[in-house]
Structures are given as structure tokens and as C-alpha cells.
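lol so apparently i was supposed to do this last week
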Amino acid sequence: MNTFTNAMEQLQAAAKAGSITTADTAFLQAPKRVIEVSFPAKTDDGTTKYYKGYRVQYNDARGPTKGGIRFHPHADLAEVQALAFWMTIKNAVVDVPYGGGKGGVIVNPKEHSRSELERISREFIKAVHEFIGPTKDIPAPDVYTDKHVMAWMLDEYEAIKGLHQPGMVTGKPLALGGSQGRDYATAMGGAFVLKEAVSLLDINPLKATVAIQGFGNAGMHMARILDGWGYRVVAVSDSRTGVYDPKGLDVKKAIAHKKKERTLEGYGAKIVTNKELLALDVDILVPAALENQVRKSNAGDVKAQLIVELANGPVTPEADALLEKNGVTVIPDVLANAGGVAVSYYEWVQNNQGYYWEEEEVMEKLEKKMVKSFKEIHALVKELDSTYREAAFILALRRLIEAARLRGAL
Ligand code: GLU
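anyway here it is w/ glutamic acid bound
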């Protein structure tokens, strides 16, 4: 499945729903710049291995390109391109002054020691340092990268430049200029929009059941937040296994187990596969893992009334059409997971001004931004009788087209 082709299909569908011409979206039909590198990094026994990495700077009409870097054995250019495109849309949806970018390194972090991952992170920055920077292109964590990876990348970049430039990367540790709340911002932003959608759909939060696919940074914090709000989290899964208890999981115990054992196996509930989790009889489904999980072949099995896309691209365009037909509301990734980049923006603002905010201030700003974006999109859904995905894209496209036009790029 070509994820970039899917992303372009979404663009076409939204442009059509919003009566936006093909000429006006031409500047978004291909990335502005693609950087492909091959770089060496030594293993712990001193052998040199070569890795392939990508950074796609999709569009910068609204500001420096911005988006995460993922480490994944199956990362490929089409995927990174799609992710960079979605960042372009996402950053415009929540109105942060950035274009969109994304990076990927083909590596399986589970097969490497910490010191090997450090060398891979530093070498990747050596390979791309000329193309990134706080006013150029700003990376952040993504799948299988975290604050430690960001710390190594920042340190390498600053060593090369001979300057302190904390704003070259976000999602850093607090001690290096990170922001309060950035670690759970993606899930928190998703929870804020989930709450809005739940009240519109007349779902009772205290009776609602939730299944979450993915138990990494986004999925784990989402489980914690929703559990704290009184929702019944009945299933969670990681890349290997899922656990299900219709009466509700002990979320704190599941998190402690996963942190200690690095797997959900042995948690002590019914085991389900990732595929089974997506088809569970729940009110709300939160895909928080990888792309293309809900497809034509299994979209018809989804029983949830509401899908909140915490992952990027978890639902394919074919599945979208089936879900719409079946009356399932999908809150799209470009809104639902934008809390991460929204707080990345707050982190960058704090770095630029050298003045740091309390967690409460960050969260207040995040909630306001997420609720405002949700309401803008909801108004478009009503006005155009469109899906939430189409409406989110239309909102973003209007902003992107205005910027491109002002620059003379249209
Ligand atoms: N990787 C995250 C995303 O897909 C965060 C990007 C960022 O903070 O720049 O939205």
C-alpha cells in the first residue's frame, strides 16, 4: 500500500468537497524538497554499518518546515513523504506558523543498544545538519524516537554550529530547554477533541468504552487520561499483543507492567490481536500506532461509533468511505494528534524568548487551541455536509493557499 498515494487521494477528495481548484492545490501535489542520506555509524563492537535516512520538507509557505523523525525498520520514502504532507496540513489546521516536514531512518531500535542509537542519532544529524535549524526545519520525536534521541540530536547540531540553539528541535528533555507537558501533549490534545466529539454525539463519558491500538507515548498517555476522566478503557495493544477486559482494564497496572516488562504479555487479561482490537464492541476506538490499520478489508468490522486518530494515517481512504457509510464519525489525525506539534510550537516559542512557562499555562493554551480548531472544523462539517477529515483539510488548504498566494507561489 502506497501511503503517499492515499494522502494525495485525501487531498483530492477534500479539494472537491471544498470547491478548491486543482490549480490551487498544485503546490501541494509533490514535496518541495527531499533529502535522502546514507550515513555510517559504528556498532558497539567497532564495525561500521550504513543506514539510510530521509528528511522531506514538504511545504514551507507558512513557516519553517516542522515534524518528527521516526526510527523504523520499514520506514520508506513514500511513507515519510505522506507524513510530511500530513504535517503541512496539521500545522495549518491548528494554525501554528510552520510548514510541514518529516524524517525517517531505516533502523529497528529494538535491535540496538543505547550507545548504538546515540551514534545513529548523531550521525543522522551530521548528514542533514545543513538543511535543518530553528528557522529552517525543526525535528521532533515520532515513532520509536524520544526525548533522549532529541537530546543527542540537539547536542550534535550545537557542536557542529558552535552555538546554543535549543529551538532546532522540540520534544527535548526539560533540562535542555524542553517544555512542560510536551511528553503527553499528543494524547492530551486528542483527549480535548475527543471530549468535544463525545458531547456532540451524545455519548455518556461515564459509560463509554474505549479501545486503544498502540501503547507507545501517544496510546499510553491517552489510556491514562481517559481512565482518569472516568471512561472505561477496555483494551490496549502494543506491536506484539493486545489485552482486553470488557469490565475495564486496570490502566495503571497495565502501564506499570508495560514499563517493567516492555510488553503487555503477562498483564493478566484476555489476549487479543491488533486486528481483533479494531473490531471490538466499544463506543470509541483510538488508533495510536501506525498507518493503514483500518482498511477496506476490516473497516466493515468496526463497531465503534467514534474513531479518534491519534496515529498518523491509520485509516485508508477506502476505509474512510466505508466508515462514513456506516455512520462512524472519524476525527482525523491532522486534528486529533495535533496537540503534539502545538506544544512543540510552545516549546520553540519558549526557546526563542528564553523564558519558560508553567505546565498549567501550556495546558491552558493547548486546550484553547484544540477546542477552537475542533469548532472551526465542526462548523465546516455542518456548512459543507462533509466529513471531519475533508473539513480539516479544507480549513488547512484555505490557510496554505492564502500564504502561497501572498508569496507569489500561486
Ligand atoms: N511527530 C509528531 C507528529 O506527527 C510531532 C511533530 C512535532 O512536534 O513537530 O505530529
